[in-house]
Write a structure and sequence with these properties.
This is DNA primase/helicase Gp4 N-terminal Bacteriophage T7-like domain-containing protein. With 361 residues, this protein is α+β, with helices and mostly antiparallel strands. The protein has 11 helices and 14 strands. The longest helix has 37 residues.
């Protein structure tokens, strides 16, 4: 009986192995050949296959996959057409086509193979060296002025959140700031600090007469890479409790509502990678309620990562209404905090101290 059982199973294993392994090996060979041929040509390939140029400019902006406003960037690392999105994750040029077009691997590889021979190599990118970046950022920062009541930047922030009586020194206003579209505009400038507290970049919010400028992406960082854990330190956080949110406006609104210092991580991708200072023992994460769950994913992803630390207590707060962040709650229908519903805060299950009512007081 044992011998018969062994004979019954052997053909099945042989059939599966002889069918699957060559197919998988063939796909790997096709994938490698396609990627090798396309390396250094991905911008032309993607344009040829219908990807809009605005998604291929190596700047944070709208995501063609999830529709997020500023969590996507096409960085084309090593000429492989790579992208990264705070919600969708990261991938290469082939994966971008598969996700955007709904193609399977074989279809995407075939489409790339059909055009790769007719596409010129991508033009070389001229990276700005670090001394030049620092010089440009210093020049912009020194030409700007502290916010004062009534100027365009102050009016914009005041329309979105309750501001502290003393405006943080990390914020400045300018009427002449270079924008990615080549136009000089008014802007709110925010100094971005690395995990060690040292300045690493400047975040720009471009402004029009009545709010954010009428442009595709009114928020942008200066050129240069930003270390994981960077943030706009809007409050002097020397205690053990610290909040983190995406936008500057959201951080101010959350700080006013909950009575704790809150920093801005600038976007969902940076929020997910943020790390609190060593002295912090309790982190409150204020997520955006995005219709496609990008803000929630970033907030709970950060909470999940930090929850592994035994020295931290972590909780997440997200507005109940889809499409809202905490700044939206201020202007929405004139509701007060008690009147506007809120998702029950999620935590690690430990005693987190302040209740919502206590946080409001």
């Amino acid at each position: 009986m044992g011998a018969e059982g062994a004979h019954a199973r052997i053909p099945v294993v042989r059939v599966l192995s002889s069918h699957r392994l060559p197919q998988e090996a063939g796909e790997r060979r096709v994938r490698r050949r396609t990627i090798d041929a396309a390396r250094g040509k991905w911008k032309g390939i993607l344009l040829h296959l219908g990807v809009e140029a605005k998604f291929l400019d190596n700047r944070h902006g709208p995501c063609p996959l999830c529709g997020g406003r500023d969590r996507y960037r096409w960085d084309n690392k090593n000429g492989n057409g790579t992208y990264i999105c705070g919600q969708c994750g990261a991938g290469n040029g082939l994966q971008l086509l598969m996700n955007l077009k709904g193609w399977d691997f074989v279809t995407a590889a075939r489409e790339v193979d059909d055009v790769v021979g007719n596409v010129d190599p991508d033009p070389p990118t001229r990276e700005m060296d670090d001394p030049t970046r620092v010089r440009l950022m210093n020049k912009l920062w020194q030409s700007a002025t502290p916010l004062i009541s009534g100027d365009r930047a102050h009016r914009y922030l005041a329309s979105r959140a309750a501001l502290p009586s003393t405006i943080p020194s990390c914020l400045r206003s300018t009427g002449w700031c270079p924008a990615p579209d080549g136009v000089h505009r008014s802007a709110l400038l925010a100094l971005v600090s690395g995990p060690d507290g040292e300045p690493v970049n400047i975040h720009r919010t471009f402004l029009g007469p009545n709010g954010k400028a009428d442009m595709e992406n009114p928020r942008a960082l200066m050129p240069g890479r930003i270390p994981d854990g960077a943030a706009i330190r809007l409050f002097a956080a020397t205690g053990e409790i610290l909040g983190i949110a995406e936008g500057i406006e959201t951080a101010f609104a959350a700080a006013d509502r909950f009575g704790i210092p809150v920093w801005s991580a600038m976007n969902a991708a940076m929020l997910a990678k943020w790390t609190p200072p060593a002295y912090v023992r309790e982190v409150w994460i204020f997520g955006d309620n995005d219709a496609k769950f990008g803000g929630q994913a970033a907030a709970f992803g950060l909470a999940h990562r930090l929850a592994g630390r035994l020295d931290l207590q972590v909780q997440v707060h997200v507005p109940i209404e889809a499409g809202h962040d905490w700044a939206d709650e201020i202007t929405h229908a004139g509701k007060s905090y008690r009147e506007s519903q809120e998702i029950v805060p999620q935590s690690q299950g430990r005693n987190l101290g302040k209740s919502h009512a206590q946080a409001e007081q």
